[in-house]
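Researcher: Next sequence.
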Amino acid sequence: MKIRSVKPNKHKRAFEVSTWRDKYIFPYVRAEPVPTAADAVVSVLVDGELGREAFSYVLESGREGTVHVEQVLEYNEDPAYMRDLLLYKLTLEAQQRLEASPLSKREIIRRLNTSPAQFYRLLDQTNYRKSLDKLLLLLRVLDCEVDLVVRAKGA
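Model: Next structure:
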């Protein structure tokens, strides 16, 4: 996701980040180095060298920092980002379980009732357009039980 604009807000002690989809805040304390009242943000700009997927800032002391858009999305728990993160983690788990499975890939494809091309797209951790349903079915075919656990933050 590309960043459209970013500006510092010293009253909120946070960067205000605008993407093409939404607006987010990112607190100074989550950045490295941390901007403070004694070492304030002098300039901030969307980093074109990083494909507009990050922003860089300079402090009065001359120290510089960079924040990637994924850090902003993770801090704000953006639903689309969290879905992609869940798909990524489940895909990595499926890859590990596949390596340990005694089943042949052909047998797994047959049990999934899918094509080999779709099976390999399902195993691609960079593919975020796949169905969570099919990924859960794959894990079931690999004799895994998937439980969704909801707990309070910090627990």
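Model: The two ends are 30 Å apart (CA to CA). The beta strands are 3-9, 14-19, 23-27, 41-46, 54-59, 64-68.
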